[in-house]
Design brief:
alpha/beta, Rossmann fold, 6 strands, globular
Length: about 240
């Protein structure tokens, strides 16, 4: 009896979510249609290659557990500095870089999949904004990154910009600087650090996901808004507006 009730509750929740999502998508489509011909589109920075558009961290965990015998999960990452995460068993920043580079050369990295709903949301946003990838990724995985974008997000991004923040060689460019260069009107990012940097530079940021590494008890700057998933991004940018 209880199992039947729980199944009915689950079904009811699923139907509610589906209806709510359909209503939101309809509102977003209407907002896009209403903005057609309203003038030049603003640039929107998408920090697309971590946990905003793809499952980078879950794939890294699978790699680390399979190859290095760890038992780490994405929920263990209170920081995106991997050497600060006890479950990774990394003694230093250099050791973390070694493992990340090894991960990038593995099939685990090659098999990363996009997040559900990302491509659909980006297609709606593309009608109103010029979309750019603004990523901290290393320059030496640019070819793989561009191949991933072409495979899963073909035609959606105007350009991709690489900060090379954890690269062993080459110049590094901050997220605010990349956003300024493209004239970004906003950034979607899962990093609290980058969100704060962009807020300080006058760039509104949607802080994506309820992740341990972007949790804080401190009040956020007024130009930072939290969004749990892609439907929330659409609501903020297409229905409510910046």
């Amino acid at each position: 009896m209880l199992a039947t009730i729980l199944r009915e509750i689950d079904a009811g929740i699923a139907i509610f979510i589906a209806v709510a999502t359909a209503i939101l998508l309809k509102e977003c489509a209407e907002a896009v249609a209403g903005s057609a011909g309203a003038g030049d589109r603003g640039s929107l920075g998408i920090a697309a290659l971590l946990l905003v558009c793809c499952g980078y961290l879950p794939a890294f965990c699978k790699f680390s557990n399979a190859v290095h015998g760890t038992s780490v999960e994405a929920a263990d990452f209170h920081s995106y500095m991997f050497w600060e995460v006890a479950g990774c068993r990394l003694a230093s920043r250099e050791a973390a870089l070694d493992r990340v580079y090894e991960f990038h050369a593995s099939d685990f990295f090659a098999r990363i999949e996009p997040l559900p709903g990302a491509a659909e949301a980006l297609r709606l946003l593309r009608a109103k904004f010029e979309l750019h990838v603004v990523t901290s990724r290393q320059s030496d995985i640019e070819p793989q990154t561009r191949a991933f974008l072409a495979r899963h997000f073909e035609g959606l991004f105007t350009a991709a910009h690489f900060g090379n923040h954890f690269g062993r060689e080459g110049a590094k460019t901050s997220k605010p600087e990349m956003c300024k260069r493209i004239g970004a009107v906003a950034l979607v990012d899962d990093s609290l650090t980058y969100a704060r940097q962009c807020a300080a530079a006058g760039i509104p940021t949607l802080l994506f996901g309820a992740y341990p590494w972007n949790a804080t008890d401190e009040a956020l700057d007024l130009s930072i808004r939290r969004v749990a998933r892609w439907q929330d991004v659409l609501a903020e940018l297409l229905v409510k507006g910046l």
